[in-house]
Design a protein that fits this description.
heterodimer; A: alpha+beta; Alpha-Beta Plaits; about 20% helix; about 35% strand; elongated; B: mainly alpha; Ammonium transporter fold; two-stranded antiparallel sheet; 17 helices; about 0% strand; disordered N terminus
């Protein structure tokens, strides 16, 4: 089992969700996050005060999937979240040791 | 249809006897139209302060200090309201010296629903109580403006002590100096008595009486300075006190380093708009009569404000590349400040020019000057209110000129509009500006020092980092 974690542009969330649903991923967790990569930040000006805002708002999504679904999940996210501009985000794949569905007690593959 | 009469004939006779004793009974009643307008104006000025100014300021601070600003404004309104009734009105608006009134109307002694206050016209009176309430709202909003300059770092206990001291020793005297005079009726009566005086001795006595009536006025008033609705009393006064406070209390921790962006420009937009709405009570209400003069003040408060919002916005757009919401809102407030002393004196085209000028001047002070000198006037009380007030006070001296569409200045002794003299009027205006800057600047500095010794001015650094809402008030503005 794997966790696919993707940092994407906030306005791409719906498209990514649709793409994941289309390949049979039924469930994901979304977090509003801030951060920076190559996109760096931007400047905000309030009257005379200029602030360099280095942390930009992004969306982090996490999906837990079987190991054999990783490639098509990555493909789905990549194609849906891509704009071609700096700041499209990144995808990280992490090993998942164990999973439990709280309602039934099912574990691992049956819990995904 | 019949009405039940709750009073017996005996009670009614007693009441007549009581009212007759006040002498007001026999005189004509107040002008009900003017009275209605002043009742309305009074609540409009309260609307400017709460929630107008409170939200305007609150939106500009970080969310952890939102409640502290709301509380400081609300507290100030309440404490000044009570003080005003106890002795503030008496100190500001009774005769005494050129610099401060006396205690003859302390606790509103002798003021009844039948008491009348003068307006700017002979034989047009309003209820003294509505005049007291109207001026009360001015006394309340002025110190509220100050707290913006040291927002996010002052102790509430310091503000709780500073505000009563400040209104007592700074605001009441300045209001007395600028606005206290005997009124048109007293002058008119003295002039009539002089005209009616038969022999030389009577003429001398009548002239002495007229001189005495004209001498019964505040120091700045007698210098000939005109201030329609409080450019000096409210804006220069609070603006310089704010600057002194920002300098003495020091910068916010992390100033120039940490992100101190406004937490809700939406609130600031609501507040600025309520300020504009309420300001019609402030400016058009200062006419004291629901006359053409009030309509002129209203017109000027519309056009100067709009012009100043546009001038700040376009100037920022040209210089910085973007038209900002905060810039447009700040420009509008600067325009309101500048038109305050001019509202009843300038023509509408003059007011537009005044607005265009003040938008750019205040932008310059809030950005270039503030950054160059490096003081942390958190919400630009000095840059908008003091600087805008000075632009307005001096601009009023120019725009009152009938040749520029102004109204000219009424000479109540001569009973006509006085000839306009540019140099003399500008010197008068400069006296108003200078006296206010010195009195409030030095006086406030002393009061800050006194408060610092007694309770300490500044919140400690942990309190400031955590935010004043939770540490000073044990509440959060937003639980979500």
């Amino acid at each position: 089992m794997k966790i696919v974690m993707a940092i994407i542009k906030p306005f791409k969330l719906e498209e990514v969700r649709d793409a994941l649903t289309a390949i049979g991923v039924h469930g994901l967790t979304v977090t509003e996050v801030k951060g920076y990569g190559r996109q760096k930040g931007h400047t905000e000006i309030y009257r005379g005060a200029e602030y360099a805002v280095s942390f930009l708002p992004k969306i982090k999504i996490e999906v837990a999937i079987a190991a054999d679904q990783v490639d098509k999940t990555i493909d789905a996210i990549t194609s849906a979240a891509k704009t071609g501009q700096i700041g499209d985000g990144k995808i990280f794949v992490i090993n998942l040791d164990h999973a439990v569905r709280i309602r039934t007690g099912e574990s691992d593959a049956a819990a995904l | 249809m019949t009405f039940k009469r709750p009073y017996s004939a005996g009670l009614a006779a007693l009441a007549v006897g009581l009212f007759a004793a006040t002498a007001a009974y026999a005189e004509p009643t107040v002008n009900k139209g003017d009275n209605a307008w002043m009742l309305t104006s009074t609540v409009l000025v309260l609307l400017m302060t709460i929630p107008g100014l409170a939200l305007f300021y609150g939106g500009l601070v970080r969310s952890k200090n939102m409640l502290s600003v709301l509380m400081q404004v609300f507290y100030t309104v309440c404490i000044v309201t009570v003080i005003w009734a106890l002795y503030g009105y008496s100190l500001a608006f009774t005769g005494g010296s050129d610099f401060i009134g006396g205690f003859s109307k302390a606790f509103l002694m002798g003021v009844t629903p039948d008491s009348k206050a003068a307006t700017f016209s002979v034989d047009a009176n309003i209820s003294e109580l509505v005049y007291i309430c109207f001026q009360m709202t001015f006394a309340a909003i002025t110190p509220c403006l100050i707290v913006g300059s040291f927002a996010e770092r002052a102790k509430f206990s310091a503000i709780a002590l500073f505000i009563p001291l400040w209104v007592t020793l700074i605001y009441f005297p300045i209001a007395h100096m600028v606005w206290y005079w005997a009124g048109p009726d007293a002058i008119s009566d003295a002039v009539k008595a002089l005209a009616a005086a038969g022999d030389a001795a009577a003429k001398t006595a009548a002239q002495a009486k007229l001189d005495e009536v004209n001498a019964d006025a505040g120091w700045i008033f007698k210098k000939g300075a005109i201030d329609f609705a409080g450019g000096t009393v409210v804006h220069i006064n609070s603006g310089i006190a704010g600057l002194v406070g920002a300098l003495l209390i020091g910068k916010r921790t992390g100033y120039g380093k940490d992100l101190m962006a406004p937490h809700s420009l939406t609130m600031t937009m609501i507040g600025a708009s309520l300020l504009w709405v309420g300001w019609f009570g402030f400016n058009a209400g200062s006419n004291l009569e629901a006359s053409g003069g009030a309509a002129l003040a209203m017109t000027n408060s519309f056009v100067a404000t709009a012009a100043a919002a546009l001038s700040w916005m376009f100037a920022e757009w040209i210089i910085k590349g973007h038209p900002s919401v905060l810039g447009a809102l700040s420009g509008a407030v600067a325009g309101l400040v500048a038109v305050t002393p001019a509202a009843g004196y300038s023509g509408p085209m003059g007011a537009i020019v005044l607005g265009l000028v003040v938008g750019v001047v205040c932008l310059f002070f809030c950005t270039v000057v503030k950054n160059a000198i490096g003081y942390d006037d958190a919400l630009d009380v000095f840059g908008v209110h003091c600087v805008g007030g000075i632009v307005g006070a001096l601009g009023t001296g120019i725009l009152v000129n009938p040749a520029l569409g102004g109204t000219g200045i009424m000479d109540y002794t001569a009973g006509k509009i006085a000839d306009y003299d540019f140099t003399a009027q500008m010197i008068s205006q400069a006296w108003g500006v200078g006296t206010t800057l010195v009195w409030s600047g030095i006086g406030s500095a002393i009061l800050y020092k006194v408060v610092d010794v007694i309770v300490g001015l500044r919140a400690n650094i942990e309190t400031e980092r955590e935010g004043l809402d939770i540490t000073e008030h044990t509440e959060r503005a937003y639980n979500m």
